[in-house]
Records
---
Amino acid sequence: MCGIAGAYSENFIAGKYIYYALFSLQHRGQESAGIAFYSDGLRYKKQMGLVSEVFSKEDLIPAKYAIGHVRYSTTGLSRLENAQPFVVRSKIGNIAVAHNGNLVNHAELRRKLENEGSVFTSDSDSEIIAQMLSKILLIEGDYKECLQELNSKLIGSHSCVLLINDKIIAYRDPLGFRPLCVGEIEDGYIVCSESCAIDSLEGKFIRDLEPGEAVIIEDGELEFIKFAKSNRKAVCIFEYIYFARPDSIIDGINVYKARTEMGRILAEESPTNADFVSAVPDSGITAAIGYATRSGLPYMECLIKNRYVGRTFIMPKQELRELLVKLKVNVIKENAMNKRIVLVDDSIVRATTSKKIVEMLKRAGAKEVHVRVGSPPIIAPCYFGIDMKTRKELVASSHSVEEIKEIVGADSLCYLSLKGLLTALKKLGGKEFCTACLTGKYPVPVPGELTE
Ligand code: SF4
């Protein structure tokens, strides 16, 4: 998961637009941030850290075109060499790439490119896209053919924003794993991972790119191209469960509505006697409101989040994650004391957070804690850009629901069913999702795994 954006501005403030867009996309990655600008040549800045730590006012040089990236690592280590955008200098000019996703065949592609003489500066799969693009652009004249050729070689998820001299090309891979949408802003256009970034610029949402579709932004004009036909989609279902901001709309589905609907169905599937419904903040709140509405129980906060600590699941190291849980939430003891609580969380990955939180509530005097999870158990790794790489890290891959209940220390534990999850999204017009981490069946071939 990463956040990407590209902007065109008549008034040469594309860099500022990207800066604010990346702010809105910060929840998608907090390890590094970068912006590439084009104005009489390409310049860029990228560093480890949050958007607010990486850029100062002076860095936002006047430019008509800019693209940006916030990163959390999946392929490649968390270090500066892997920060994006990746820039390659080629015969056709400078190319900058901001990529959201993960290539399943990155090792094979890299070996092939190295055998052909390419030299890599990082171990990130996104640099492979930049290198391949620089070669393909030399041969294929037309961008549609170029994207067709590129996409015929890449397997996995790859929503990308490219800055090729004074042009922005943004595309979504043929299965549409990761979101990408287009908006109009005061003096130009913006493409970004989530619509919340368009809202933050007071822009007008135009539409989501379709899987296998690209948009070219050049000289203030937009051109949409369909470069790949696919008879199916595989939009990551976890965007709706956890990753995306609830104020975003992805492929026509309002994420907030999707989460409340999931909470409602969860309440129908797994009711319980309790005094009130509460949430693991922030990502469990929307599903908890849905649960409370459907169950008729009041909603009350009993955990307060320290907003200045990053999301725990997204932090790459286990020891950091454990420390952060303690720093991240605190209990309102008066609310928890002697109460039977339904505690709603969006998902359980390793169970680290859930266990600590149930412990904290019990220590604060809660009589019963009934954990309800707004997604089915995560049983299989994600190879498409989410940091769930091995079955070993996933508690549900080797434990039953009853065993997880014991690990977490809850009085009861129930997950939303896969049928319930799909019903919630279908009700809002959604269909054809990647559910591989919930089913173990992958939408593209992954060595050693089952394919749908
Ligand atoms: S495996 Fe899971 S997290 Fe990864 S893309 Fe598919 S649904 Fe999303």
Note: The chain has 16 helices and 25 strands.
---
Amino acid sequence: MNNYHTHTYRCGHGKGSEEDMIQSALKLGITELGFSEHVPLPNYRRFLMKSFVHSLKSLHGFCSFVRAMILNGPHMRMPYQMHIEHEKTVKELKHKYESQITIYQGYECEYFEPYLPYYRELLKSGEVDYLILGHHFDKYPISDYYYGKKHLSKKMIIDYHHDMIAAIHTGLFSYIAHPDLFLMGVEEFDELCQKVSYDICLEAKKYHLPLEINAGGMRRGFKKMSGEFVYPYTNQFFFQIASEIGNEIIIGFDVHQPQDFNEMIILKLREFARENQLNVIESIEMKEKEF
Ligand SMILES: [Zn+2]
Ligand SMILES: [Zn+2]
């Protein structure tokens, strides 16, 4: 069993160090482990400043803006400078544990257009083995633009659709984390949701990009959607479509603390895959130096 979706305390909302995660993964018999922190972004404050006007729309939005500006990253991602220490730590642990487990360095990235050249550089540098697409925000990482928020507007669903397709076309990513995140704040799986889901699955299939069934969505428990109880993401409506299209499916633990590696979640993920007749693959394509 492999897992390429691992966070640590460095993202500001996780617990446990890189080594804690490795030891927990080893106990569960994981053979390949990838670290995929929310990608640290250079000139983050300058990028955030562009969202200032938008953040004024709500008190919550403004507070999230101020917090992100002060902390220069957390609660969402590590400050840019910390990436040096993180990558150094991963490299050291890779050697320390090489006889027991294969470690990869990755990052989880939003489709933020201004940062696409930077993502490419990360892969080119050889320091990063792979990137996964985890598209949490529309344009700027502030709460009003969060795709997982309640009562997601039609406009935001359309923006999500647009961004996901554009992100698939970049060829930068090794897989798509929680491709159904937009369904988290949606109550009815209507025609628009159906169209967006079909398009994402079809395009991902065309570009040989695996889709993830994400344990994080399962850890949130069930919610009601179109009269059925489903996970807010790793959503049955979405993955029935992925099953029909025949997408490649990868399991992602989306670990945020060492205990997130556990037998129970593996059982749930495997059961979900079986029930929806998903085509589960075990490993992903590394993109290092391809660009
Ligand atoms: Zn994510
Ligand atoms: Zn994640």
Note: The mean pLDDT is 93.
